[in-house]
Sequence to fold (138 residues):
Amino acid sequence: MSKKILIVDDEEDIAFSLARRLTASGYEVICAEDGVEGLRRAQSDHPDLILLDLMLPKMDGFKVCRLLKFDERYKRIPIIMVSARTQDEDIALGKETGAECYVAKPFDSAELIDKIAELLGQAETAADTPAAKQESEE
Fold:
């Protein structure tokens, strides 16, 4: 079964390009154009990983990340923040809100695909731990 990735980005060309590349790499892709839709899709579609832009209409990426990471049901979903904002404060805030990784736009697609594969592998390993199995049984 292929892994499901949610792309939350209001820049249609970036979302389309990423979706095409990820689909070609064997992933199932779903997209959202704003923060509110991204949060809703994360909660309803249970993706294996989220690519999250920061500057989004309706709700910014920091708030989406914080809401997901502080909710027991979604906190294990790896989030990669993808943004043109590259100031140290933005990167630090991304980490504080719970993002596993921060990638600056423009980005190298091959490196991003590698990072996704790495994070999905870590997520699988974490899901196989005794503590995670016990949590899922409760």
About this structure: Confidence is low (pLDDT under 50) at residues 125-138. The domain at 4-137 is CATH 3.40.50.2300 (Rossmann fold).
